[in-house]
């Protein structure tokens, strides 16, 4: 009988099967799982996440609003100045202009600016761009993908995904998929850029009028979780980054908040600042106030004596939990570098009923594939002791792959299920190669003979696996929509087979056919 050492590959296979079972069925094990309603809400028995084809939902493909001026040689020290000057000339927010010395580009993100106006603004500042084109730079597109991913994750939208999609003519789009969500809900999440600013509103002692000075930007803040309590109401705890804490404290002292201030929401008029009646600390989200309040005397004192720098924290009270949640999302996910053009967007919506039908048909297809493969294998060998381990090994490969998908929370669509069926087919093909090489070359009398035949078969399997991986790799890395998912599942399945299941089947076959005598 083979020793445990000789069958370590089988032990590895069993261990992976147990880990896959944990990832599939133990709640809360996969990273990023949430109790909130999401793409997996319709699938309570496992940790698998479904994409819109199997769960219903919406996919929106929209271009980014903006123009890019190429060949603008702005010095690093002049980037901020040029951004402010161009935004003033165009009448847009300063965050809607971005200058980069590294890429020699200037971008403007506003649908109220024309190409000629953009060029005139640059020429007025002494710059002659080589070209102005519609669209934004690659760096901005990548930043958009990163921020939208964070928005989807922080909003507990499980199974959501975002990627760049190239279109004919060189234009690029952002494609966002939201399982179990409607079009309006998804647009509502994406059209809010999440711009957070903190202002000190105070009396200007020179003329008695109120002024509004920005004291913190979004990048200066880290947010905790939105909370409701009896003493503080709905609020978001925030921490000021160390690099900005001292500057913020000094600005607050200069603005007259060193002794604290008393301010209610009714004391502040956002539209007509001169109607305000008290010194207030104001936080705006997308230009609208979500936190208006005074400064506690103890906090004001910490501004003056330097204690705030050592513990740079305070809370932002909001009017309701909805505002608190939106503020938390904006601070954690960050702001979108540019808006998306939903007027020229393409959208696809799939109903939950149709998605459930796809699930059922996919399950039926998988069962039929397993039955068909099992029959072919049995008819080929007519020996249950050879065919049964082969079928079980192939199915274990699929189970491990399902565990991997559940662990990384990769949302399944129809293309991924096609990848699973391809893995079953290629897996059984490789197992047949192993069985034929060992059983069709005469009686196996010694372990050395078995090992020689198995090694020969494994070289064939390894070469076929390498060819498959090389062929699928371009599909995996390119922005080709569902084809990328098919390639990822196929490649991971092939790797699991070559590294774990095929060697384990070799050990099982060795135990069954080796003549110990």
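^ Assign residues to that structure.
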């Amino acid at each position: 009988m083979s020793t445990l050492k000789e069958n370590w590959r089988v032990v590895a296979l069993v261990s992976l099967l147990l880990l896959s079972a944990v990832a599939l069925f133990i709640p809360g094990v996969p990273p990023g799982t949430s109790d909130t309603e999401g793409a997996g809400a319709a699938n309570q028995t496992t940790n698998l996440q479904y994409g819109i084809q199997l769960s219903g939902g919406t996919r929106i493909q929209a271009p980014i609003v903006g123009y890019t001026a190429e060949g603008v040689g702005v010095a690093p020290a002049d980037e901020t100045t040029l951004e402010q000057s161009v935004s003033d000339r165009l009448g847009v927010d300063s965050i809607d202009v971005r200058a980069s010395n590294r890429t020699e580009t200037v971008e403007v993100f506003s649908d109220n600016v024309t190409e000629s106006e953009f060029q005139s603004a640059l020429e007025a500042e002494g710059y002659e761009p080589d070209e102005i084109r519609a669209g934004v730079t690659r760096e901005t597109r990548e930043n958009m993908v990163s921020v939208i991913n964070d928005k989807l994750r922080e909003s507990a939208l499980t199974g959501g995904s975002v990627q760049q999609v190239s279109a004919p003519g060189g234009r690029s789009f952002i494609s966002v998929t939201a399982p179990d969500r409607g079009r309006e809900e998804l647009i509502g999440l994406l059209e809010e850029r999440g711009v957070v600013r903190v202002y000190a509103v105070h009396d200007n002692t020179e003329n008695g009028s109120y002024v509004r000075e920005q004291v913190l930007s979004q990048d200066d803040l880290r947010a905790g979780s939105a909370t409701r309590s009896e003493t503080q109401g709905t609020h978001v705890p925030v921490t000021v980054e160390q690099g900005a804490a001292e500057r913020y404290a000094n600005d607050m002292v200069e603005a007259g908040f060193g002794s604290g201030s008393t301010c209610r929401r009714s004391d502040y008029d956002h539209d007509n600042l001169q109607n305000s009646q008290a010194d207030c600390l104001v936080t705006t989200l997308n230009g609208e106030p979500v936190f208006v309040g005074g400064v506690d005397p103890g906090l004001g004192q910490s501004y003056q004596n330097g204690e705030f720098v050592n513990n740079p924290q305070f809370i932002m009270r909001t009017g309701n939990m909805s505002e608190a949640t939106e503020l938390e999302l904006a601070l954690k996910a960050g702001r979108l570098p540019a808006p998306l053009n939903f007027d020229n967007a393409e959208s696809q919506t799939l109903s939950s009923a149709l998605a459930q039908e796809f699930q059922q048909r996919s399950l039926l297809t998988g069962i039929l594939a397993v039955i068909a493969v099992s029959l072919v294998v049995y008819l080929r060998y007519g020996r249950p002791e050879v065919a049964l381990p082969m079928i079980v090994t192939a199915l274990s490969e699929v189970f491990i792959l399902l565990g991997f998908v559940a662990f990384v929370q990769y949302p399944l669509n129809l293309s991924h299920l096609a990848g699973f069926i391809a893995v079953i087919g290629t897996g059984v093909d490789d197992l047949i190669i192993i069985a034929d090489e060992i059983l069709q070359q005469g009686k196996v009398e010694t372990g050395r003979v078995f090992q020689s035949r198995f090694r020969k078969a494994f070289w064939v399997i390894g070469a076929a696996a390498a060819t498959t991986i090389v062929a699928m790799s371009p599909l995996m890395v390119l922005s080709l929509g569902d084809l990328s998912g098919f390639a990822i599942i196929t490649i991971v399945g092939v790797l699991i087979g070559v590294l774990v299941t095929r060697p384990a089947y070799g050990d099982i076959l060795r135990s069954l056919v080796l003549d110990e005598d």
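Confidence is low (pLDDT under 50) at residues 31-43.
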